[in-house]
Amino acid sequence: MATDYYAVLGVRRDASQDEIKKAFRRLARELHPDVNPDPKTQERFKEINAAYEVLSDPQKKQVYDLGGDPLSANGGGGGAGGFGAGGFGNFSDIMDAFFGNAAQRGPRSRTRRGQDAMIRLEIDLNEAAFGTTKDIQVDTAVVCNTCSGEGAAPGTSAQTCDMCRGRGEVSQVTRSFLGQVMTSRPCPQCQGFGTVVPTPCPECAGDGRIRSRRTLTVKIPAGVDNGTRIQLAGEGEVGPGGGPPGDLYVEIHELPHSVFQRRGDDLHCTVTIPMTAAALGTKCPLETLDGLEEIDIRPGTQSGQSVPLHGRGITHLRGGGRGDLIVHVEVMTPAKLDAEQERLLRELAKLRGEERPLGQFQPGQQGLFSRLKDAFNGR
After folding, report:
1. Sign, Cα dihedral of 366, 367, 372, 374
2. Which residues bind Zn(2+) 2 (predicted)?
3. Minimal CA–CA distance to 330: which of 273, 281, 269, 261?
4. CATH of domain 261-349
């Protein structure tokens, strides 16, 4: 057989019917004579149409795959050059390629769902840890009380559009080599609604909704963090024509704390103590989220060590329990000494055998970029 229909449509021989249909529609949009009047293009259009007529019919496709004449199967059809409905396969496929699915046409509703809205709410660390309740003010669209969402002035109503007669679309007939082709588009007078509002509501200008400020109470669960969004279903904007409202999302923004830094559900802070307190031990008062507590600094505590307070952090948002409070210790070495203080320290150093300490050396800690550089260099 001289013509390779699979090659004409640009599909594999094991292509599915869906792939064949997509390939045909794509080529039909490119090669249709109304789009490209070149005579060579018209011949190409006839070829893809003949190929689709065969490959879209399971019986003809089977005959073609076996090497027979598919156009003689079941009476043949219009042939590659025919201008009848059979000569162009499924005529609705060509129409769908250009104008979409006709079943989706018709007047569209004036009533539509409203958009979702989002506001930002600032809370402090204590509120994030244990939860709270907040009153917020929201400016959103609500149903117009004057027209109850209809969009028409009181005492009036929407009327059927006299241009499209309520269909929401108008049709136009054009001529092509296929014959007369009817196309449809949204009605310019009613914008596709099928009805017009001769006297719009003076309050909402026909939209069926107005802007209004409302006060809502929001429950903030314990454990929320920066970026957490709380959904309030049905509290967003009312849709056009008094349609159902969207949702309102409250995005949490946690304010910085003067002492604690949050990392997940754990809290971190740093306490600075003199070297004598680190050597002898001490107790440091700390105002935690649960009240005043004393941090026990054990004798001999080194700079960089930490003291954990279990269960003093943030409440877990999902699941029970709380994080920890980690107190990092920083030992402060005196920068200036008077004569007596220097004498006493030298005496202490002599008693401890530390007049001339040799020190202990170890490899220094590398930063992230230094470690990456060594890794690339194979060290």
Report:
1. negative
2. 161, 164, 187, 190
3. 273
4. 2.60.260.20
Closest by Cα among 261, 252, 235, 268 to 317: 252
Q: What is the mean pLDDT of each run of 10 residues along the chain (379 residues)?
A: 78 86 83 69 82 86 77 45 38 48 63 91 96 93 90 91 89 68 83 90 91 93 94 91 91 95 96 93 94 94 94 91 96 91 89 77 60 55
147 is in an annotated binding site: yes
Tell me, what's the pLDDT at 314? 96
Residue 269 assigned as binding residue: no
d(CA 231, CA 216): 13
With a CB cutoff of 8 Å and minimum separation 6, the contacts of 358 are: none
CATH of domain 5-103: 1.10.287.110
In whole angstroms, give the CA distance from residue 216 to residue 138: 7
Residue 81 burial (CB < 10 Å; 0-12/13-18/19+)?
exposed
DSSP of 79-146: -TT--SSGGGS-HHHHHHHHH--GGG-SPPPS--PPPPEEEEEEE-HHHHHH-EEEEEEEEEEEE-TT
Q: Which two tokens stand for residue 250?
A: 């409250």
On whether the CB atoms of residues 326 and 306 are closer than 8 A, the answer is yes
Residues 6 or more apart whose CB falls under 8 angstroms from that of 349 comprise 355
For the chain, what are the domain ranges? 5-103, 117-158+197-254, 261-349
Cα–Cα distance for residue pair 8/3, rounded to 1 Å: 8
What's domain 117-158+197-254's superfamily in CATH? Urease metallochaperone UreE, N-terminal domain (2.60.260.20)
Query: Taking Cα atoms as reference points, which of 81, 247, 105, 257 lies closest to residue 167?
Result: 105
Is 190 within any annotated ligand binding site? Answer: yes
284 annotated binding-site participant: no
